[in-house]
Design a protein that fits this description.
Elements: E1 3-10, E2 13-20, E3 30-35, E4 40-47, E5 55-62, E6 66-72, E7 99-105, E8 114-119, E9 122-126, E10 134-135, H1 137-140, E11 156-162, E12 170-175, E13 178-182, E14 190-191, E15 212-217, E16 225-229, E17 233-236, E18 244-245, E19 254-260, E20 268-275, E21 278-281, E22 288-291, E23 299-301, E24 319-321, E25 329-332, E26 338-341, E27 349-352, E28 358-366
């Protein structure tokens, strides 16, 4: 029997829960944890490419010991931390790691490759399943990097998308550096922000410097992308070559996360917030919005979500989908609540409350 594994990274550890696919009755989910107690977990990945079973990868940040990358090959029963720091900046950079923002397994054609995005904004690549990483120097040495500026949450490389047309193509997003792409396996990188507006700079459409919050790829049209910006929701139909605003119809186009449906082309989810100066749900209403048609229109998803005034902010990696059928959709917020839908977002229920501040959510079907 297949099951969904739900991983919730919080300010004070990692919580895991499971349920069998197809059994939707209330009370199925049971949370266990926290793993990494008192550590902030900003990044979680589930690598299902390994022949021996899935590997969980976690970026945890101890206020005493600093940031590290852990992995588990038995779904969280035991964890391993490398004896030498898995992610570290070379001495010549004069830089130290503050946080691992993102962990992303590459495609099936690179079964041992895992990427890490960090703060300060940098990309690291592992060739051994996430046990050790090397800095991608070509992006670090890009002539525009020194002009990237920290956003409200820092200067973090938080999105890595691989394999639109093969292992040589990788896209990353940095807050606030913008979107960058390589088409030659990282030998060279170029900004990819045409059409994305920067409302807080004199130059409204610069080559780089956008405060991109998250990017997600369409499951069918691999050259179609959805982007949530610091003000603005956008779509690209040419692999990031250009971007078109699709925020009309939303109560606000400010927000952090964007996620796509695992199978249905053109279906994406966002969680709008009031404003950059008022980072609470738009209109104080806990609502997910879904587009069924690549941003031409938006649907308010509300069934089962709180109707009272709500103040739970959803961060950039705290909204996700699984690959069940119908798809599960999940989000966690800074109130310590986790909500889930088992029907593509049509209806919702509360899975957990009173958790620490939720930083990231991941869900996948295993078995």
């Amino acid at each position: 029997m297949s099951e969904v594994l739900l991983a919730v990274g919080t300010r004070k550890g990692l919580f895991l829960a499971r349920r069998e696919v197809g059994r939707r009755a209330a009370g199925e989910w049971e949370f266990e944890g926290p793993h990494f107690a008192a550590q902030a977990v900003y990044a979680v990945a589930v690598d299902r490419r390994r022949p021996g079973g899935p590997r969980l990868l976690v970026g945890a940040d101890s206020s005493h010991w600093g940031p590290s990358v852990f992995h588990s090959d038995d779904l969280g029963v035991t964890w391993r931390e490398p004896g030498r720091a898995a992610v570290r900046f070379p001495e010549g950079t004069g830089t130290s790691l503050e946080r691992v923002w993102q962990l992303t397994p590459a495609g099936e054609d690179e079964p041992d490759v895992v990427y890490a995005g960090t703060e300060p904004g940098a990309l690291f690549r592992s060739a051994d399943g996430g046990e050790s990483f090397e800095l991608v120097r070509t992006l670090w040495d890009h002539p525009t990097r020194e002009r990237w500026e920290p956003g409200g949450g820092g200067l973090g490389l938080h999105t890595v998308l691989t394999g639109a047309s093969g292992p040589e193509e990788v896209m990353v997003a940095v807050s606030t550096g913008g979107v960058y792409r390589t088409r030659d396996a990282g030998k060279s990188w170029f900004p990819s922000n045409q059409g994305v507006e920067v409302v807080f700079q004199p130059e409204r459409f610069p080559e780089f410097g956008q405060c991109v919050h998250k990017v997600a790829r369409d499951p069918v049209r691999r050259d179609r992308l959805f982007l949530q910006n610091h003000w603005g929701v956008y779509r690209s139909d040419d692999g990031g070559g250009s971007w078109t605003s699709i925020g009309a119809g939303l109560p606000s186009d400010f927000g952090f996360p964007v996620a796509t449906h695992p199978r249905r082309s053109g279906v994406a989810y966002v969680f709008p917030l009031n404003a950059d100066a008022d980072r609470v749900p738009a209109g104080r209403r806990c609502r997910v919005y879904r587009t069924p048609d690549a941003g031409e229109s938006w649907e308010e998803l509300r069934t089962g979500l709180p109707d009272a005034p709500h103040y739970g902010t959803v961060l950039r990696d705290a909204l996700c989908t699984d690959d069940a059928d119908p798809a599960g959709v999940y989000f966690g917020n800074r109130n310590g609540e986790v909500f889930a839908s088992a029907d593509d977002g049509d209806s919702w229920r509360l899975l957990a409350s009173h958790l620490p501040d939720v930083l990231c959510v991941r869900a996948v079907v295993i078995g």
